[in-house]
Amino acid sequence: MNAELNDVNILSHQLLPTPRDTKEQFPVDAPCAEFVLRSRLSLRRILDRQDKRWVAVVGPCSIHDLKAALEYARRLRALAEDLQETMLVVMRVYFAKPRTTLGWKGFVNDPFLDDSFRIDEGLKRAREFLLELAALQLPAGTEVLDPISPQYFDDLITWTAVGARTTESQTHREMASGLSAPVGFKNGTDGNIQVAINGMQSASHPHHFLGMTQDGQVAVMHTRGNRHSHVILRGGERPNYDSASVANCETMLRDQGLRGNIMIDCSHGNSLKNPDLQPLVLDHCVSQILEGNQSIVGFMLESNLHAGAQPIGSDPSALLYGVSITDPCLDWETTEHALRNADRKLIKVRQDIIGSFGYPAVSAQVSQLLTGTEVPNG
User: For 285-290, which contacts have Cβ atoms below 8 Å and span 24 or more sequence positions?
Assistant: First the structure.
């Protein structure tokens, strides 16, 4: 190849293990595989209105310290068991962070927080952490930012988000159409809901696009479409969790022939970027449900062991334990109080709950999937 024409601005490249090699090195055992299938089916049933609970996506803005994240996960797992009659609790496990300009791009990109960019190590350690969550039987949710890294841990994800900066992206809509887990599309950073609804429409249909196989080969991917999607209202130039905004979103979804599934992000524009306001937003959403709203299927909270945020600085070892290095978060105690308060109110309107954290009503479907007698849609 002509060096003056190819890779002009590429300084070097590093080969990575294939997704298949990484998955064989860190395999999913049978109990973990059954749990992930079970949690996905439960989430689909919530979106299909067959399970009368709500989804709570709760956790750090981003994962940067696996020890602190695992401590958080253990606390959340214990809480999730107490809330199981009203909520399917999913831990927010974001390994990649979108940047408006520059900044730390997440654990997979730079796991040691020192600009060493050991992506190989980031992918491996991210998968190890997700295996620990599956062993705890705590569902994991994440945001997809690129079409390659999900191949390394897609088998451990229960729920996926397409973020406000990428919800208009054709690449992400195509990718969402082939994801094995339900997916939420956030409204745009300016508050535009239509772009998220367009994303849902696009992802629900089959697509053909360039991607990477489990063996690391470039291929044309043919998808069947992912019919289990929903809108995430995260605010924009103004909050949009109020009943008027929710009703407007319901109308827009109905006009497009889509099911009125709406999740409220209690952070970002809806909290005016003040984490302390998140419980108030959550309480307002619960009040709408108590008043008869049937489109709100869940909510999101940004939460960590301790409140606030901190800069990375020049010495990562000096970081405070359990404090976010991206968006400021609620502390654990406030998070637990807010969720328990929501649970006490939501239990009043819950009907026909399908069972305990083991989800016995979906056991037959899980068995079919594990034995290959049924192929999941989406």
Answer: 285/241, 286/342, 286/345, 286/346, 287/345, 288/243, 288/246, 289/54, 289/346, 289/349, 290/345, 290/348, 290/349
Phi, psi of 296 (to 5 degrees): -75, 110
> Given a cut of 50, is residue 25 above it in pLDDT?
yes
Check pLDDT > 70 for residue 294: yes
Cα(12)–Cα(9) distance, rounded to whole angstroms?
Answer: 9
Predicted model pTM: 0.93
Higher pLDDT, 1 or 128: 128
Q: Does domain 19-371 have CATH number 3.20.20.70?
A: yes
Interval 97-117 mean pLDDT? 89
Helix (H, G, I), strand (E, B) or coil at 140: strand
Spatial neighbors of 177 by CB under 8 A, at least 6 apart, are: 202, 203, 204, 205, 206, 207, 223, 224, 225, 226
Backbone angles phi, psi at 144, to 5 degrees: -95, 125
The pLDDT of 284-304, averaged and rounded, is 97
The strand pair at 54-59 and 87-92 is best described as parallel
Place of tokens 């034995």: 371
Give me the residue spans of the domains in the chain.
19-371
Query: Which residues are CB-contacts of 371 (< 8 A; sequence separation ≥ 6)?
Result: none
